[in-house]
Amino acid sequence: MSEEPQPEFVYRLASAAEWRDAQSSGVVPKRDIDLKDGYMHLSTKAQALETARLHFAGADDLLALEIPLAPIAQKVKFELAPKRGEAFPHLYRDLRREDVAAVIPLLRDGDDFQFGAPQ
């Protein structure tokens, strides 16, 4: 059985305020769930929009921080999220501002989201 190929990018969903904090502090802030679980929750591109729909339904300023996987790969583990039945990327260190290659707005589409143009 072959292993799934690793994606080129992984994504952190963040509010505009969280991204502004990262601009000044140099580190993307952790949420309570990240602190509780001991890692930063990330998604693949295929998972990001569903994650936004499930966990950020009320957000109007949601961003997808696009992170090249290769430079952080040694600190990322793909682990099963039982509720979704999929392996998600989990980052076992701080996510630094310089890790982020692009900032992509997530645009509301009814109850769903879609990727906007990278900023």
Written account of the structure:
The protein has 119 residues and is an alpha+beta fold. The protein has a single domain (9-107), classed as ADP-ribosylation fold, CATH 3.20.170.20. It contains three helices and seven strands. The protein has helices spanning 16-25, 32-37, 45-55, and strands spanning 9-15, 40-41, 62-68, 76-81, 86-91, 102-109, 112-115. The strands form two sheets. Strands 1-3-6-7 form a four-stranded antiparallel β-sheet. A three-stranded antiparallel β-sheet has the order 2-5-4. The longest helix has 11 residues, at 45-55. 24% of the residues are buried.
Note the beta-strand portion.
25-35%
Give the helix proportion (percent range). Answer: 10-25%
Largest sheet report: 4 strands, antiparallel
Gyration radius, in Å: 14 Å
CATH fold-level label: ADP-ribosylation fold
Write out the CATH superfamily name: Protein of unknown function DUF952
- Order of secondary-structure elements: EHHEHEEEEE
Strand order of the largest sheet: 1-3-6-7
CATH architecture assignment: Alpha-Beta Barrel
List keywords for this structure.
single chain, 119 residues, alpha+beta, ADP-ribosylation fold, four-stranded antiparallel beta sheet, three-stranded antiparallel beta sheet, 3 helices, 7 strands, 23% helix
